[in-house]
Amino acid sequence: MLSYLDTACNSGNEGKTRVTPPPSQETPTISVTDVSVGQGARTEMSNLLLFRLYQCANMLHKTGTRAVESEGLTTQRWAVLGALSRPESDHGMAVGDLARYLKVSRQSLAGVVSRLESDGLVVGAPDPTDGRSRRLRLTDTGRQRWHDRALPLIHDYYSQATAGLSIDDMAHALHYLIRLIDNMTALDDMTAGGAPPTSEGVNED
Q1: What pLDDT score does 191 carry?
Q2: Position 8 pLDDT exceeds 50
Q3: Are residues 98 and 86 in contact, defined by beta-carbon separation less than 8 angstroms?
Q4: How confident is the model at residue 130, as a pLDDT?
Q5: Alpha-carbon distance 44 to 48, whole Å?
């Protein structure tokens, strides 16, 4: 995964872009010569960026699931439990709101929630303000499992996954990721009407 993108203007090398990835035999250093200068430069850099994000998402699913599988969790179940563990979700969270928060379809969420309900970690009840919807909340067992057993594993995973990144590095990455999410959310809003595509490695089961 590309970890550092530096436009070396301060060193007198204006216009030269240097990418310094972490040491890896599979990830060569990208120099300005790897990205055509001209009309296609932005497209090529966009391709590099979004492909690395795709790889990162797949590795997050694989290694994140491995980190919590001893608790019967996957990254999807982890995401749902984490969302429902927030103080603002103490009184439950509507299924539609949870889907929007996690940026997934209700159809994709249904299987995850069903498994968590079967395991006794989440419970759903009719939404008092909308009889067509349900509100989800953690059970006492789910809350205990999350705080006492899952979170320590997750925090250890965070430490390993972000090794070598400073707080400043992560703040900058977060800033640009939020901008990308905003762009993609706007694109999704414009093209809404069908269920978003799913892919292997992302589905719940």
Answers
A1: 87
A2: no
A3: no
A4: 76
A5: 6
pTM of the predicted model, to two decimals? Answer: 0.74
pLDDT at 88 over 60: yes
Burial of 52 (0-12, 13-18, 19+ CB in 10 A): middle
Q: Which residues constitute the domain of residue 143? A: 53-171
Number of domains in the chain: 1
Determine how β-strand 17-19 pairs with β-strand 5-7.
Answer: antiparallel
CATH value at residue 66 = 1.10.10.10
105, two tokens: 């379809």
Residue type, 7: T
From the list 83, 181, 60, the residue with the least C-alpha distance to 173 is: 181
- pLDDT tens, 48-57? 999 999 999 9
